[in-house]
Write a structure and sequence with these properties.
The complex is a heterodimer of chains A (about 350) and B (about 300). Helix content of chain A is about 70%, strand content about 0%. Chain A is built from 12 helices and no strands. In chain A, about 40% of the residues are buried. In chain B, helix 5 crosses helix 11 and helix 11 runs antiparallel to helix 13. With about 300 residues, chain B is mainly alpha-helical. Chain B is elongated, with a radius of gyration of 24 Å. Chain B has 2 domains: about 60 residues, no CATH class; about 190 residues, MetI-like fold (Orthogonal Bundle), CATH 1.10.3720.10.
Chain lengths: ~350, ~300
Amino acid sequence: MSETALLPAAPEAPAVPAARGRSARVLVLSIAGLVASVAMILLSASPDYFVTTLRLVVAAAGVALMVVSGSALGRQLFGPAFDLSFWFSVAWLLLLGLAVTFAPWLPFGEHLDVANSLDQPINASPDPFSANPLGTNLFGLDLLARSVYGARSSLVIAVTAVVIGTVIGGAIGMVAGYFQKSVDRVVGIFTNSLLAVPPLILLIALATVLEPRIRNIAFALSLLTIPGMVRLARATTMLYAPREFVVAARALGATRVRILFRELLPNVLLPIVSLAIVMISILIVAEASLSFLGLGIEPPEPTWGNMIAEGEGTVFEDHPHIVLVPGTFLFLTVFAFNLVGEKARRRWDPRSVKL
Amino acid sequence: MVLVLLIVSLGVFALVALLPGDPAVAILGEGHPASTYDDLRTELGLNDPMLTRYADWLGGALTGDLGRSVVPPRSDVSDRVVSALPVSVEIAVLGLLIALLVAVPLAMWSAYHEDGVLDRMISAGTFAVLSVPGFLAGLLLIMVFVNALDWFPRSEWVRISDGDLLGNLHHAFLPALTVALVELAMFTRVLRSDLIVTLREDYILAARAKGMPPLRILFTDALRPSSFSLVTLLGLSLGRLIGSTVIVEYLFSLPGMGSLVVNAANQGDFPMVQGAVLVIAVIYVLINAGIDLSYGYLDPRTRKAHV
């Protein structure tokens, strides 16, 4: 493998200085477009103004306008290489992270205790201008609050699992890749066995046995990440092990531990971290699927999966927002992690692994 | 491969056998005389050491006997698996077919008109679809095609063996489409990027210079050498395919393996979970082995490379 793969991506094209007068016009227009699109989305989310079909049309037009004016504004401010979807993803993840961290102090409606939501309307549709901006569920619990607290368990579970999987899988993979021979063979059989059961089936089998608590589910999910991590760490280590700097370190009398930690780890780390980001989105989906099937965290404790399951049957025929609200949260988060992870991987992974 | 299967079977068995709590109490409920529990334990073989039980179970599994469910009416696990398997296979195969039928033309168009407007829309669209979990996609499809438009029925199933093939397809289409969505997006992306590389080869240029029509170039010259990653992906996506089939069966209440496993897991029916998971794992490993063999057909260069 050549070293060029490790160089950072080609420098981005220099910003073309636009003509002053036109720049100001585009700036004003795009900001106006952005404001208008937010207004359109808010109006269409509220049940008072339009009939259903028109609401969908207005919402779609709002989103389209937002994309167009957002990227125009971004290109104007940050140069032509501006990638709207990437920055949108970063912004969404930051926003979600902040909301999750400060959830107890934010002015949300009731998310858990049915006794406190007796005075709330049930199955209320989303209305940005009311006390429950995203509506309520069958028990009058606030969907915005539940979505944020659901993000809490989803993110905690997924991130814990990925960290466990990355540390264990990365360590095993590096050892297998460096020592090879019989160690490698044993590790190979172990990972192949883990890969021989389809992921969701493995999860369901584990869920039969384990009590549905955050700790247990995180442990079960980490088992899913280990084989992929082992393979990537092993392959990357094997790529670097014969290189000059490793040979030189060995010739200077460095111990195996030192070589693994000081010479190989820094090179293996970046590809592994970029895979880990993509893994987070896979695990969020896996956790949501599990709680959707009724095998994960149990209600009333909210997760996106069991919130979506509340709409199962005939409920969501009359109240589609029960599914759509947590569904949108789930989609945006998975999308954001996918996009950021993909970008990181394209930049840092010397060989592209397809999972 | 045999070793892997052996480890998997041991894992599946140990997982459930190490279950905390007494299965006999779980089955009968509490408040029976102690001798009743003892009888049941003897009948289930729970008094034997674990290795003996594993050997018995594995021996039974090899001869097609996976034991009996512990949930009344205590039906035979093998029977249930045999009746559930065709449903899942049908959904998975149909889903795969839909995915391939849509993905190949989409990818060809995309690759041939690289960086065109439609190509960019397809790229963005497939990336978005990849971020929609199967159960969410299924619910949205139900929302549109069942609730709003009323084109398809929900949650009934017509077996092929009843002779009503059209009715069967009518019921299977929406679940299969749900399964197909993610695969479709994946296939399109991978095939597109491989096709773009292939289309830059000299022999494609030669074919073009000879005046061959684009469609003929795409199908006869470019498709086979470009489908290498696609076939690898087919193997890798199999696990996801099985996973989404499970979800879709649950969602549409189809009597397949997925519903079998999920219901058994919800009821703590461990012989059923063990048996079904073992069958799924065996099928999975066998198909993956088959895919490894197909490389030789696709790319003659690999025939000698590794055996």
